[in-house]
Design goal:
The protein is of the alpha/beta class. The chain contains six helices and seven strands, in the order βαβαβαβαβαβαβ. A five-stranded parallel beta sheet has the order 5-4-3-6-7, with helices on both faces. A two-stranded parallel sheet has the order 1-2. The longest helix has 19 residues.
Length: 182
């Protein structure tokens, strides 16, 4: 940091740490997203999108969303293993596995794990849906709205923009206490 002219931090804990050593050149610039970009939507619009993505048979299912890169530090294989444990527990307690996790990432990202192999090994293929294409902000907003919660398990996260976007849609978030997610 000594060789840098200016340090702009989007993460407040990072700002606090860096500002202690370099107060004269450290700024805090919080993340911001336009309020009308991610918001709660009418239930019919959300239901139509959910039917299109998951099918009619999954309309009443519990759904979880993962939005991030499939990179090792994002712990995507750990999320899927946790999902397997959740599905097993659901079967034991409720006699069914009516739930889906939507993984909005590339299952074959060179920085991450082969998620197709992971779901095959874990035996959860029927309860995992991949959404790997880049989609417009409007569709991303609907994707957040159609899920019951969003999950982020990153071991090293600067901010966690999907968490902010999901919260703007009124969705609860499951994450760990690390970096910007704190």
């Amino acid at each position: 940091y000594e060789s840098t002219d200016l340090i702009n931090c989007i993460n407040y804990p990072t700002y606090e740490m860096v500002h202690q050593r370099f107060p004269e050149k450290t700024n805090y610039i919080p993340h911001a997203v336009p309020r009308d970009l991610f918001k709660e939507l009418p239930s019919q619009q959300v239901e139509d999108f959910k039917k299109k993505l998951l099918g009619k048979e999954r309309l009443d299912q519990f759904s979880v969303l993962y939005v991030s890169r499939n990179a090792r530090r994002k712990m995507t294989a750990d999320i899927l293993q946790s999902w397997q444990m959740f599905m097993k527990d659901m079967k034991e307690k409720h006699g069914h596995q009516k739930a889906s996790i939507i993984m909005h990432c590339d299952p074959l990202d060179p920085e991450g794990t082969n998620l197709h192999s992971v779901i095959d090994m874990l035996g959860i293929k029927e309860n995992v849906v991949f959404s790997k294409d880049r989609i417009a902000f409007e569709d991303m907003n609907v994707l957040y709205n159609m899920c019951d919660t969003i999950v982020n398990r990153s071991s090293n996260e600067g901010f966690g923009l999907p968490i902010l976007e999901a919260k703007m849609c009124g969705k609860p978030v499951i994450s760990i206490k690390t970096g910007g997610l704190t």
